Amino acid sequence: MANKQFDNHLGIVGWLGGGRWGVERYLYILHRLTGLGLLLFLLMHIFASSVRMYGPESWGVAMAILKNPVFKLGEFCVFVIFAFHALNGIRLIFIELGLAVGRAEEPVYPYKSSLNNQRPLMVVAMVLVAILIVAGGYNTFFGSH
Amino acid sequence: MKETAYWTWFIIAGIVILVIAGLHMVVMHLPMFGVFNPESGAVTDWGNVAFRSQNQFLAFTYIILLGAVLYHGFYGLRTIVFELGPKKSFQDGFTVILWIVGLVLFGIGTYAAIAAKALETAL
Predict the structure, then answer these.
(1) What pLDDT score does B77 carry?
(2) 3 state DSSP class of A20
(3) What's the pTM?
(4) Is 90 exceeded by the pLDDT of residue B31?
(5) A7 pLDDT band (50/70/90 cuts)?
(6) How many domains does chain A have?
(7) By C-alpha distance, which of A89, A121, A88, A84 is closest to A102?
C-alpha cells in the first residue's frame, strides 16, 4: 500500500491499522474516530438547538421527534464518545507536555520504552471513562429528566 | 510558526470545551442543580429553554463553547486529512474552506443564541 512519493505513507490503511504498536496506538485511532463522530453530532446539534429561536411551537415539534427511543440511545452514544474523547484528550495533553512519561534516561540495553511509563496514566484514564459511562448510562436511561 | 499557533489554540479550545461542555452536561442532565431550570418538568420543556435562552451567562458561555468546538473539531478534521498526504494546493484550499464553513456555522449558532434571548419567557 506504500505510496510512491513517500515510502512510509500508508494512507487510510495505515491510519486505521495499529499493527503491533500497543493499546495506545488503538486509543489514538479511537480518539480520531470519536472526534469525527462528535463533529458530526455538533453540526446536527447546532441546527436542532437553533430551532428555539422560532418559538415554542417549533421547539415542541423538534422535541417530539427527539423523544424517539432511537435518539435516546443516540444521546447515550454521544455521551460515551464524549467521555472517552475528553479523558483520552486530557491524557494526550499530559503526554504532549512531557508529564507522566518518566524522566529521560541513558539508552542502556535492555532499552526501556516510555510507553511503560505512560501506561498507568492510560489505565487511570480508561477506568474513569468506564465510571463515567456507567454513571451517564444510569442518568440517561433511569434519570428523572 | 503559524502551525504551532494553530496547534496551541487547538489545545486551548479543548480545555475550554472540557470546562464549558462539562457545565452544559450538568445543566442539561443533572436537574438537581435546578438554578438554570426553574420550571418543573424536563430541562427541554419550553419554560426552562426560554429561561436559559434569556440568561446572559449561559448565552455567553454557549457562544464561547460554539467557537471552541468548531475550531477544535475542524482543526482535528484538518489534521486527519493532512496526514493522508494531500498536495499543498489541496491543503491550502481545504484550510480556507474549513475557515469559511466554520465562520458560517458560528454565525448561525450565535444568531440563534442572540435571537432566542428575545423570546418571551413562557407560554
Answers:
(1) 95
(2) coil
(3) 0.84
(4) no
(5) low
(6) 1
(7) A121
CATH number for the domain spanning A113: value is: 1.20.1300.10
Contacts of B109 in chain A (CB under 8 A): 46, 50
ipTM higher than the 0.90 cut: no
Which H or E run includes B86?
none
Write the pLDDT tens digit of every residue in B46-95: 888 888 888 888 889 999 999 999 999 999 999 999 988 889 999 999 99
Tell me what percent of the residues of chain B surpass a pLDDT of 70. 92
Residue whose grid cell is 475542524: B74
Delimit the domains of chain B by residue range. 2-117
Closest CA to A93 of B11, B40, B51: B11
**B interface with A, Cβ–Cβ below 8 Å:** 11, 14-15, 17-18, 21, 25, 28-31, 42-44, 46, 49-50, 53, 66, 69-70, 73-74, 76-77, 80, 83-85, 105, 108-109, 111-112, 115-116, 119, 123
Range of the domain at A101: 11-142
Cβ–Cβ of B112/A53 closer than 8 Å?
yes
**Whether domain B2-117 has CATH 1.20.1300.10:** yes
Confidence of residue A130 (pLDDT cuts 50, 70, 90): very high
Closest alpha carbon within chain A to B40: A145
Burial (CB count within 10 angstroms: exposed 0-12, middle 13-18, buried 19+), residue A12: exposed
